[in-house]
Specification:
The complex is a heterodimer of chains A (294) and B (237).
Chain A lengths: L1 H4 L3 H32 L6 H19 L3 H22 L9 H23 L15 E3 L4 E3 H23 L1 H11 L1 H6 L4 H23 L9 H16 L4 H21 L7 H12 L9
Chain B lengths: L6 E12 L2 E12 L3 E6 L5 H8 L6 E7 L2 E2 L5 H8 E4 L11 H6 L11 H7 L1 H5 L10 H13 L5 E5 L7 H16 L3 E5 L3 H7 L2 E6 L2 E7 L3 H12 L2
Parallel strand pairs in B: 3-8, 3-9, 6-7, 7-8
Antiparallel strand pairs in B: 1-2, 1-4, 4-5, 9-10
The chains are: A mainly alpha (294), B alpha/beta (237).
The complex binds adenosine-5'-triphosphate (ATP) and magnesium ion.
Magnesium ion (MG) binds next to helix 1 of chain B.
């Protein structure tokens, strides 16, 4: 079959793997955006910077405190998430009653400040972050080689995405979140501290981005620009999936990662634009996105 | 010494605003423990605004609202709810993204001693069969029952009910009436807003008439026969 198509099997599976890996990050990041948008109605343009902060936190924890990958996977999301909560309390809180565009502008501005600051201190070239020794090595699957660390990234992303979906759609806490998305005033009148819940939701969405950043550190380089590079694609993913749909964000993230990877096999010239072509097609036919509710 | 009833809720000189518009102009009334007080008045008189002010849902409010000895005028609404007040809104507030049973379990239990799910389903049997449906797929009457039912689990003592019979067929109104009487006999204190006067006079102990953001008259149910004409004039019926 591969001969007929004029491509080699290893090239095909290699690109497929890269697609799934990219999809893992698209899914994690668009999930965080969807969680934040659902609750705060803020289009969180600092999401890419927060992903970059996750990776940098891991790098700095290692360089200055000798804290390794596994602890960073826990600590960096907590640290960056806490920073997110401060951001929500100090800035975002004042925007909820205004048009979405204010939230977008403010978070875009904050992203520029953060990324500019990091470029000032660390330069724009990337810094390497080693793969944890437990995950070094490669599996030979017969038709391709699968690096252990990449397998781990896919599994970790799937588990976190599924866990988040489960928490929101199937638990008591999730029912508070869904209800507060619809009618926060009434949920608060039932005795639930909605402003606190909003802060924590934002912190959680930011922590997801930081978690993605730590996962990404050993694969891509840790660089102040890593967030800008990925976030534009992630916004296209969110538009395609539909703002605010949890499941939509995850599924669309993985699928578009694969679509992008396969395009690289069959028509490499289009690989960096295919997602935007899909976005245009979806916007023309289903303006609310594939999983969005009108 | 005689047993004077104690006021569970005392509203004094309550003013409320939506932005520039001044809606409540010094509302004064009390609700005694175990009493069912019915707030009546024409459309736009400020009845809903009064309930929402008590619940802390109107940010611009002044005056004094004392519940069980606690001044609540400066508290945010989740703190007020935690003192033991529950609200059933006029538009019912059933959540579309939650199932019937998730809607039912949404308001957290605040004090022990609320009704358990079985007791609530006994009061509103239709809800039991629909537990897994989407909340807003219920009929209007069932949504109203869900809106009342879900606040009975919480163990709160004071219920604020905003027009529970609005838009319901007569047999459903009777069912709601029966459940409200059942709640009274369980010792709940109820502040009811109602336009359906024939319904209200069968459940209320006392009426407060509201006009243009003030209480203009108070009529105990015993005096209702003699003062019916006066009341009808207030309500314009
Ligand atoms: N969100 C709001 N913003 C501005 N004005 C409002 C708002 N809600 C109510 N009002 C105004 O406040 C006044 C009192 O409204 P309220 O809802 O308290 O009346 P009501 O007595 O409950 O009437 P109804 O019997 O029709 O439910 C009305 O004039 C209404 O137009
Ligand atoms: Mg009203």
């Amino acid at each position: 079959m591969f001969d007929l198509l004029g491509i080699s099997a290893p090239a095909f599976f290699g690109q497929l793997l890269i697609g799934v890996i990219n999809g893992s990050f698209y899914a994690l990041l668009s999930l965080g955006l969807a969680v934040i948008f659902g609750m705060l109605h803020i289009i969180n343009f600092v999401h890419g910077a927060q992903y970059m902060l996750g990776a940098f936190t891991a790098l700095l924890l290692l360089n200055y405190l000798g804290i390794g990958y596994w602890w960073s996977l826990l600590l960096a999301p907590l640290i960056v998430g806490a920073f997110g909560i401060v951001l929500e309390r100090v800035f975002l809180r004042h925007l909820y009653k205004l048009d979405h565009v204010y939230g977008l502008l403010l978070t875009f501005g904050i992203a520029l400040v953060i990324e500019g600051t990091f470029r000032e201190f660390f330069g724009s070239s990337g810094q390497p972050y080693g793969i944890p020794p437990e995950l070094a090595g490669v599996q030979n699957l017969g038709f391709m080689f699968l690096p252990n660390y990449r397998a781990w990234v896919i599994v970790a992303s799937l588990v976190v995405c599924f866990g988040t979906w489960f928490m929101i759609e199937r638990t008591r806490l999730g029912s508070y979140l869904r209800a507060a998305t619809e009618n926060p005033a009434l949920v608060q009148a039932f005795g639930i501290n909605v402003p606190l819940m909003v802060s924590l939701t934002y912190g959680f969405g930011v922590a997801l981005a930081a978690f993605g950043g730590v996962l990404a550190a050993p694969i891509y380089q840790v660089s102040p620009l890593m967030g800008i590079n990925i976030i534009i694609v992630v916004f296209a993913v969110v538009v395609i999936g539909g703002m605010g749909s949890i499941l939509g964000a995850v599924v669309t993230g993985f699928v578009l990662g694969v679509v992008e990877g396969l395009t690289k096999v069959f028509y490499p010239e289009a690989s960096s634009t295919v997602i935007f072509v899909v976005m245009v097609l979806v916007l023309l036919t289903r303006p609310t996105g594939l999983f969005g509710r009108a | 010494m005689t047993d004077t009833p104690t006021a569970l809720l005392r509203v004094s000189d309550l003013h409320a605003y939506y932005g520039e518009s001044h809606i409540l102009h010094g509302v004064n009334f009390e609700v005694q423990e175990g009493e069912l007080l019915c707030l009546v008045g024409r459309n736009g008189a400020g009845k809903t605004t009064t309930l929402k002010s008590i619940m802390g849902m109107i940010p611009q409010r002044t005056g004094s609202i004392v519940y069980a000895g606690n001044e609540t005028i400066r508290l945010s609404s989740h703190r007020i709810a935690r003192l033991g007040i529950s609200f059933c809104p006029e538009e019912r507030g059933i959540f579309a993204s939650l199932t019937v049973s998730e809607n039912m379990l949404l308001p957290p239990v605040i004090h022990p001693g609320g009704m358990d799910l079985d007791e609530i389903y006994e009061l509103f049997p239709n809800l039991r069969e629909r537990a897994r449906s989407q909340g807003t797929k219920l009929s209007g009457g069932e949504q109203q029952m869900l809106a009342i039912g879900r606040i009975l689990r919480t163990g709160t003592k004071l219920l604020l009910l905003d027009e529970p019979t609005e838009g319901l067929a007569p047999v459903l109104i009777q069912q709601i009436g029966a459940s409200i009487r059942a709640l009274k006999s369980k010792g709940y204190t109820i502040l009811l807003v109602e336009q359906n006067f024939r319904f209200a006079e069968r459940v209320a102990d006392r009426f407060c008439v509201m006009e243009h953001g003030r209480i203009v008259d108070t009529i105990p149910v015993e005096e209702l026969e003699g003062r019916r004409a006066e009341l009808h004039e207030h309500l314009g019926v």
